[in-house]
Amino acid sequence: MNSGSRLDPRELAYGFTEFEALSPADRANAARYSTGRIGLAEQARTIIMLGRPRTCIPGVICYALGYTLVSSRISWYYCFGIFMVLVAGLLANLYNVCTDLQEDSSNLPGRVWLVVGMGYQRLRLATLILSAVVICAALAYSVSYAFFAAAVLVGVHQYSFPPLRLKARPGIDLLAFSLAVYGPFLLGYFGAKRAVPAPSTAAWLWVGFLVLWFAAKCLTKNIPDYAGDRDAGLRTSVTLFPSQRAAAIAAAAATLAAYASLPLFVVLGAAPLRVLAAIPWTAVAVVNSLSLITRSADRRQANLILKRDMWLSTAFIITVLLLSSPSWLSLIAIGFGAVVLACSDIFSLDSRRVSDVSGSEGTERSSQ
Hints:
Layout: H1 9-12, H2 16-20, H3 24-32, H4 40-51, H5 57-68, H6 76-99, H7 101-107, H8 109-118, H9 120-139, H10 143-160, H11 172-177, H12 179-193, H13 201-221, H14 226-231, H15 244-260, H16 262-267, H17 281-295, H18 299-324, H19 328-346, H20 354-357, H21 363-366
Protein backbone atom coordinates (compact mmCIF):
# COMPACT_ATOMS: atom_id res chain seq x y z
CA MET A 1 0.00 0.00 0.00
CA ASN A 2 1.36 3.43 -0.94
CA SER A 3 2.24 5.94 1.74
CA GLY A 4 -0.15 8.47 0.18
CA SER A 5 -3.16 6.35 1.09
CA ARG A 6 -5.94 7.83 3.17
CA LEU A 7 -5.82 4.75 5.42
CA ASP A 8 -2.23 4.92 6.66
CA PRO A 9 -0.89 1.39 7.28
CA ARG A 10 1.15 2.76 10.19
CA GLU A 11 -2.12 3.56 11.95
CA LEU A 12 -3.56 0.11 11.30
CA ALA A 13 -0.43 -1.90 12.15
CA TYR A 14 -0.40 -3.43 8.67
CA GLY A 15 -1.05 -2.25 5.14
CA PHE A 16 -3.41 -3.25 2.38
CA THR A 17 -0.83 -5.54 0.77
CA GLU A 18 -0.65 -7.61 3.95
CA PHE A 19 -4.41 -7.46 4.34
CA GLU A 20 -4.99 -8.70 0.81
CA ALA A 21 -2.64 -11.62 1.46
CA LEU A 22 -5.02 -12.90 4.14
CA SER A 23 -7.68 -15.49 3.37
CA PRO A 24 -11.22 -14.13 2.73
CA ALA A 25 -12.33 -15.44 6.13
CA ASP A 26 -9.45 -13.67 7.89
CA ARG A 27 -10.16 -10.44 5.99
CA ALA A 28 -13.78 -10.58 7.14
CA ASN A 29 -12.75 -11.21 10.74
CA ALA A 30 -10.22 -8.38 10.63
CA ALA A 31 -13.03 -6.03 9.61
CA ARG A 32 -15.61 -7.47 11.98
CA TYR A 33 -13.41 -7.03 15.05
CA SER A 34 -11.67 -3.84 14.04
CA THR A 35 -12.13 -0.91 16.41
CA GLY A 36 -10.95 1.58 13.78
CA ARG A 37 -8.02 3.97 13.76
CA ILE A 38 -9.02 6.88 11.53
CA GLY A 39 -10.15 10.34 12.59
CA LEU A 40 -13.62 11.87 12.36
CA ALA A 41 -13.08 13.56 9.00
CA GLU A 42 -11.87 10.33 7.41
CA GLN A 43 -14.70 8.40 9.06
CA ALA A 44 -17.19 10.73 7.37
CA ARG A 45 -15.49 10.20 4.01
CA THR A 46 -15.44 6.43 4.51
CA ILE A 47 -19.15 6.36 5.35
CA ILE A 48 -19.88 8.21 2.11
CA MET A 49 -17.64 5.88 0.13
CA LEU A 50 -19.29 2.79 1.60
CA GLY A 51 -22.70 4.42 1.09
CA ARG A 52 -21.88 4.83 -2.64
CA PRO A 53 -23.90 8.00 -3.40
CA ARG A 54 -23.74 7.44 -7.18
CA THR A 55 -26.01 4.41 -6.79
CA CYS A 56 -28.63 6.52 -4.98
CA ILE A 57 -29.40 8.83 -7.90
CA PRO A 58 -31.96 6.59 -9.66
CA GLY A 59 -33.85 6.59 -6.35
CA VAL A 60 -33.71 10.40 -6.20
CA ILE A 61 -35.07 10.64 -9.75
CA CYS A 62 -37.83 8.15 -8.92
CA TYR A 63 -38.72 10.29 -5.89
CA ALA A 64 -39.17 13.22 -8.28
CA LEU A 65 -41.21 11.01 -10.60
CA GLY A 66 -43.61 10.16 -7.77
CA TYR A 67 -43.81 13.72 -6.46
CA THR A 68 -44.52 15.27 -9.86
CA LEU A 69 -47.29 12.75 -10.44
CA VAL A 70 -49.18 14.67 -7.74
CA SER A 71 -47.82 18.23 -7.68
CA SER A 72 -45.90 20.70 -9.84
CA ARG A 73 -45.37 23.25 -7.06
CA ILE A 74 -41.86 23.86 -5.75
CA SER A 75 -41.70 23.73 -1.96
CA TRP A 76 -39.18 22.99 0.77
CA TYR A 77 -40.94 19.64 1.28
CA TYR A 78 -39.78 18.57 -2.16
CA CYS A 79 -36.14 19.59 -1.66
CA PHE A 80 -36.08 18.16 1.85
CA GLY A 81 -37.43 14.89 0.48
CA ILE A 82 -34.58 14.65 -2.03
CA PHE A 83 -32.10 14.83 0.84
CA MET A 84 -34.05 12.23 2.82
CA VAL A 85 -34.11 9.79 -0.11
CA LEU A 86 -30.36 10.21 -0.66
CA VAL A 87 -29.67 9.35 2.99
CA ALA A 88 -31.98 6.32 2.75
CA GLY A 89 -30.06 5.18 -0.32
CA LEU A 90 -26.76 5.49 1.51
CA LEU A 91 -28.24 3.44 4.33
CA ALA A 92 -29.18 0.61 1.97
CA ASN A 93 -25.56 0.29 0.87
CA LEU A 94 -24.20 0.61 4.41
CA TYR A 95 -26.50 -2.14 5.64
CA ASN A 96 -25.21 -4.34 2.85
CA VAL A 97 -21.58 -3.65 3.80
CA CYS A 98 -22.30 -4.59 7.42
CA THR A 99 -23.72 -8.00 6.54
CA ASP A 100 -21.63 -8.98 3.51
CA LEU A 101 -18.10 -8.88 4.87
CA GLN A 102 -17.53 -12.52 3.94
CA GLU A 103 -18.69 -12.12 0.33
CA ASP A 104 -16.95 -8.77 -0.09
CA SER A 105 -13.70 -10.24 1.24
CA SER A 106 -13.61 -12.31 -1.94
CA ASN A 107 -15.25 -9.88 -4.35
CA LEU A 108 -14.14 -6.47 -3.07
CA PRO A 109 -11.26 -6.65 -0.58
CA GLY A 110 -10.74 -2.91 -0.93
CA ARG A 111 -14.22 -2.29 0.44
CA VAL A 112 -13.56 -4.51 3.45
CA TRP A 113 -10.28 -2.65 4.01
CA LEU A 114 -12.31 0.54 4.40
CA VAL A 115 -14.32 -1.17 7.15
CA VAL A 116 -11.06 -2.14 8.88
CA GLY A 117 -10.11 1.53 8.99
CA MET A 118 -13.57 2.67 10.02
CA GLY A 119 -14.24 0.06 12.68
CA TYR A 120 -17.25 -2.25 12.46
CA GLN A 121 -19.09 -0.93 15.52
CA ARG A 122 -18.60 2.64 14.37
CA LEU A 123 -20.12 1.66 11.05
CA ARG A 124 -23.14 0.12 12.78
CA LEU A 125 -23.52 3.27 14.89
CA ALA A 126 -23.46 5.38 11.72
CA THR A 127 -26.37 3.38 10.30
CA LEU A 128 -28.40 3.98 13.46
CA ILE A 129 -27.74 7.73 13.32
CA LEU A 130 -28.64 7.97 9.63
CA SER A 131 -31.81 5.92 10.22
CA ALA A 132 -32.85 8.39 12.90
CA VAL A 133 -32.16 11.26 10.50
CA VAL A 134 -34.55 9.76 7.92
CA ILE A 135 -37.34 9.14 10.44
CA CYS A 136 -37.03 12.61 11.97
CA ALA A 137 -37.07 14.16 8.50
CA ALA A 138 -40.20 12.20 7.61
CA LEU A 139 -41.97 13.52 10.71
CA ALA A 140 -41.85 16.97 9.12
CA TYR A 141 -44.50 15.72 6.65
CA SER A 142 -46.85 13.79 8.92
CA VAL A 143 -46.92 10.94 11.40
CA SER A 144 -48.35 8.54 8.83
CA TYR A 145 -45.59 9.51 6.40
CA ALA A 146 -42.97 8.84 9.09
CA PHE A 147 -44.44 5.37 9.64
CA PHE A 148 -44.25 4.70 5.91
CA ALA A 149 -40.64 5.90 5.77
CA ALA A 150 -39.85 3.62 8.71
CA ALA A 151 -41.47 0.70 6.85
CA VAL A 152 -39.26 1.43 3.83
CA LEU A 153 -36.18 1.44 6.05
CA VAL A 154 -37.21 -1.87 7.61
CA GLY A 155 -37.50 -3.36 4.12
CA VAL A 156 -34.10 -1.97 3.17
CA HIS A 157 -32.60 -3.30 6.42
CA GLN A 158 -34.09 -6.75 6.00
CA TYR A 159 -32.78 -7.01 2.45
CA SER A 160 -29.37 -7.53 4.03
CA PHE A 161 -29.90 -8.42 7.69
CA PRO A 162 -31.48 -11.46 9.33
CA PRO A 163 -33.96 -12.73 10.21
CA LEU A 164 -35.39 -12.24 6.72
CA ARG A 165 -32.17 -11.47 4.77
CA LEU A 166 -34.22 -11.12 1.61
CA LYS A 167 -31.17 -10.94 -0.67
CA ALA A 168 -30.55 -14.63 0.10
CA ARG A 169 -34.04 -15.66 -1.03
CA PRO A 170 -34.05 -16.25 -4.80
CA GLY A 171 -36.95 -14.50 -6.52
CA ILE A 172 -37.85 -12.45 -3.48
CA ASP A 173 -34.43 -10.80 -3.68
CA LEU A 174 -35.43 -9.19 -6.97
CA LEU A 175 -38.55 -7.60 -5.48
CA ALA A 176 -36.67 -6.50 -2.37
CA PHE A 177 -33.84 -4.94 -4.38
CA SER A 178 -36.40 -2.99 -6.41
CA LEU A 179 -37.41 -1.22 -3.21
CA ALA A 180 -34.44 1.04 -3.98
CA VAL A 181 -36.56 2.74 -6.65
CA TYR A 182 -40.23 2.08 -5.92
CA GLY A 183 -39.70 3.02 -2.26
CA PRO A 184 -38.45 6.53 -3.19
CA PHE A 185 -41.19 6.80 -5.83
CA LEU A 186 -43.85 6.22 -3.18
CA LEU A 187 -42.03 8.53 -0.76
CA GLY A 188 -42.29 11.22 -3.42
CA TYR A 189 -45.93 10.44 -4.19
CA PHE A 190 -46.96 10.47 -0.53
CA GLY A 191 -44.63 13.38 0.22
CA ALA A 192 -46.49 15.57 -2.25
CA LYS A 193 -49.71 14.71 -0.42
CA ARG A 194 -48.04 14.85 3.01
CA ALA A 195 -50.09 11.81 3.92
CA VAL A 196 -50.35 8.12 2.98
CA PRO A 197 -53.61 7.60 1.04
CA ALA A 198 -54.33 4.77 -1.37
CA PRO A 199 -52.15 5.29 -4.49
CA SER A 200 -53.82 6.06 -7.81
CA THR A 201 -53.90 3.58 -10.68
CA ALA A 202 -51.13 5.49 -12.44
CA ALA A 203 -48.97 5.28 -9.31
CA TRP A 204 -49.46 1.50 -9.08
CA LEU A 205 -48.54 1.16 -12.75
CA TRP A 206 -45.33 3.08 -12.15
CA VAL A 207 -44.52 0.84 -9.19
CA GLY A 208 -45.02 -2.19 -11.44
CA PHE A 209 -42.64 -0.87 -14.07
CA LEU A 210 -40.00 0.16 -11.53
CA VAL A 211 -40.08 -3.31 -9.98
CA LEU A 212 -39.46 -4.95 -13.37
CA TRP A 213 -36.77 -2.44 -14.30
CA PHE A 214 -34.76 -2.80 -11.11
CA ALA A 215 -35.28 -6.54 -10.81
CA ALA A 216 -33.35 -6.81 -14.08
CA LYS A 217 -30.72 -4.46 -12.67
CA CYS A 218 -30.43 -6.69 -9.60
CA LEU A 219 -29.48 -9.61 -11.84
CA THR A 220 -26.95 -7.52 -13.73
CA LYS A 221 -25.22 -5.99 -10.72
CA ASN A 222 -24.69 -9.40 -9.07
CA ILE A 223 -22.91 -10.96 -12.05
CA PRO A 224 -19.36 -9.81 -11.10
CA ASP A 225 -19.89 -11.20 -7.58
CA TYR A 226 -21.05 -14.63 -8.81
CA ALA A 227 -17.97 -16.63 -7.75
CA GLY A 228 -17.50 -14.89 -4.40
CA ASP A 229 -21.18 -15.19 -3.51
CA ARG A 230 -21.22 -18.90 -4.35
CA ASP A 231 -18.04 -19.51 -2.37
CA ALA A 232 -19.64 -17.76 0.61
CA GLY A 233 -22.75 -19.94 0.27
CA LEU A 234 -25.04 -17.03 -0.62
CA ARG A 235 -28.08 -18.20 -2.59
CA THR A 236 -29.47 -15.49 -4.85
CA SER A 237 -31.37 -15.37 -8.13
CA VAL A 238 -27.94 -15.16 -9.80
CA THR A 239 -26.04 -17.91 -7.98
CA LEU A 240 -28.83 -20.39 -8.80
CA PHE A 241 -27.56 -20.43 -12.39
CA PRO A 242 -25.07 -23.21 -13.20
CA SER A 243 -22.44 -20.78 -14.46
CA GLN A 244 -21.60 -17.09 -14.49
CA ARG A 245 -22.09 -17.02 -18.25
CA ALA A 246 -25.60 -18.46 -17.95
CA ALA A 247 -26.44 -15.87 -15.31
CA ALA A 248 -25.11 -13.08 -17.55
CA ILE A 249 -27.27 -14.28 -20.47
CA ALA A 250 -30.33 -14.31 -18.21
CA ALA A 251 -29.51 -10.79 -16.95
CA ALA A 252 -29.26 -9.49 -20.53
CA ALA A 253 -32.61 -11.07 -21.42
CA ALA A 254 -34.22 -9.61 -18.30
CA THR A 255 -32.81 -6.18 -19.15
CA LEU A 256 -34.35 -6.33 -22.61
CA ALA A 257 -37.72 -7.43 -21.23
CA ALA A 258 -37.75 -4.75 -18.51
CA TYR A 259 -36.90 -1.79 -20.73
CA ALA A 260 -39.17 -3.06 -23.52
CA SER A 261 -42.12 -3.24 -21.09
CA LEU A 262 -42.30 0.56 -20.83
CA PRO A 263 -44.76 0.93 -23.77
CA LEU A 264 -47.19 -1.44 -22.05
CA PHE A 265 -47.29 0.68 -18.90
CA VAL A 266 -47.63 3.87 -20.96
CA VAL A 267 -50.55 2.42 -22.91
CA LEU A 268 -52.18 1.36 -19.63
CA GLY A 269 -52.10 4.98 -18.48
CA ALA A 270 -49.00 5.36 -16.29
CA ALA A 271 -47.59 8.25 -18.35
CA PRO A 272 -48.19 10.32 -21.49
CA LEU A 273 -47.29 8.82 -24.87
CA ARG A 274 -44.26 11.09 -25.23
CA VAL A 275 -42.50 8.95 -22.61
CA LEU A 276 -42.06 6.34 -25.35
CA ALA A 277 -39.25 8.53 -26.68
CA ALA A 278 -37.11 6.98 -23.90
CA ILE A 279 -37.25 3.56 -25.60
CA PRO A 280 -33.94 3.97 -27.54
CA TRP A 281 -32.12 3.58 -24.21
CA THR A 282 -33.19 -0.06 -24.37
CA ALA A 283 -30.65 -0.89 -27.08
CA VAL A 284 -27.80 0.80 -25.22
CA ALA A 285 -28.64 -0.91 -21.92
CA VAL A 286 -28.93 -4.33 -23.54
CA VAL A 287 -25.62 -3.98 -25.40
CA ASN A 288 -23.90 -3.02 -22.14
CA SER A 289 -25.53 -5.96 -20.36
CA LEU A 290 -24.49 -8.36 -23.13
CA SER A 291 -20.86 -7.37 -22.64
CA LEU A 292 -21.00 -9.12 -19.27
CA ILE A 293 -21.42 -12.47 -21.03
CA THR A 294 -17.84 -12.42 -22.31
CA ARG A 295 -16.20 -10.24 -19.65
CA SER A 296 -17.89 -11.29 -16.39
CA ALA A 297 -14.95 -13.51 -15.38
CA ASP A 298 -12.67 -10.46 -15.33
CA ARG A 299 -13.80 -8.67 -12.18
CA ARG A 300 -12.16 -5.41 -13.14
CA GLN A 301 -13.85 -5.29 -16.52
CA ALA A 302 -17.16 -6.47 -15.06
CA ASN A 303 -17.16 -3.70 -12.47
CA LEU A 304 -16.42 -1.10 -15.14
CA ILE A 305 -19.44 -2.45 -17.03
CA LEU A 306 -21.52 -2.04 -13.87
CA LYS A 307 -20.36 1.58 -13.61
CA ARG A 308 -21.55 2.16 -17.18
CA ASP A 309 -24.80 0.42 -16.32
CA MET A 310 -25.38 2.86 -13.47
CA TRP A 311 -24.79 5.80 -15.81
CA LEU A 312 -27.18 4.28 -18.36
CA SER A 313 -29.83 3.55 -15.74
CA THR A 314 -29.59 7.12 -14.47
CA ALA A 315 -29.75 8.58 -17.98
CA PHE A 316 -32.77 6.42 -18.79
CA ILE A 317 -34.82 7.33 -15.73
CA ILE A 318 -33.87 11.02 -16.14
CA THR A 319 -35.18 10.86 -19.71
CA VAL A 320 -38.39 9.27 -18.46
CA LEU A 321 -38.78 11.98 -15.80
CA LEU A 322 -38.22 14.83 -18.24
CA LEU A 323 -40.67 13.37 -20.75
CA SER A 324 -43.26 12.58 -18.10
CA SER A 325 -42.96 15.86 -16.22
CA PRO A 326 -40.97 18.62 -17.96
CA SER A 327 -40.86 21.04 -15.01
CA TRP A 328 -38.58 22.91 -12.63
CA LEU A 329 -39.13 20.16 -10.08
CA SER A 330 -37.60 17.65 -12.47
CA LEU A 331 -34.65 19.95 -13.20
CA ILE A 332 -33.95 20.39 -9.49
CA ALA A 333 -33.73 16.63 -8.94
CA ILE A 334 -31.62 16.15 -12.09
CA GLY A 335 -29.27 18.98 -11.11
CA PHE A 336 -28.85 17.51 -7.65
CA GLY A 337 -28.13 14.10 -9.13
CA ALA A 338 -25.57 15.55 -11.54
CA VAL A 339 -23.70 17.22 -8.69
CA VAL A 340 -23.65 13.99 -6.66
CA LEU A 341 -22.41 11.96 -9.62
CA ALA A 342 -19.72 14.52 -10.46
CA CYS A 343 -18.50 14.66 -6.87
CA SER A 344 -18.50 10.86 -6.66
CA ASP A 345 -16.13 10.69 -9.63
CA ILE A 346 -13.98 13.73 -8.82
CA PHE A 347 -13.40 12.70 -5.20
CA SER A 348 -13.59 8.92 -5.80
CA LEU A 349 -16.44 8.49 -3.34
CA ASP A 350 -17.14 4.86 -4.12
CA SER A 351 -16.15 1.45 -2.80
CA ARG A 352 -16.46 -0.51 -6.04
CA ARG A 353 -13.45 0.95 -7.80
CA VAL A 354 -11.01 -1.04 -9.90
CA SER A 355 -8.55 -0.88 -7.01
CA ASP A 356 -11.17 -2.24 -4.59
CA VAL A 357 -11.68 -5.31 -6.75
CA SER A 358 -8.07 -6.42 -7.04
CA GLY A 359 -6.19 -4.00 -4.84
CA SER A 360 -2.82 -5.16 -6.10
CA GLU A 361 -2.19 -2.26 -8.43
CA GLY A 362 -4.58 0.27 -6.93
CA THR A 363 -3.82 3.41 -8.89
CA GLU A 364 -7.03 4.95 -7.63
CA ARG A 365 -6.26 3.92 -4.06
CA SER A 366 -2.84 5.54 -4.02
CA SER A 367 -4.18 8.79 -5.43
CA GLN A 368 -6.59 9.40 -2.59
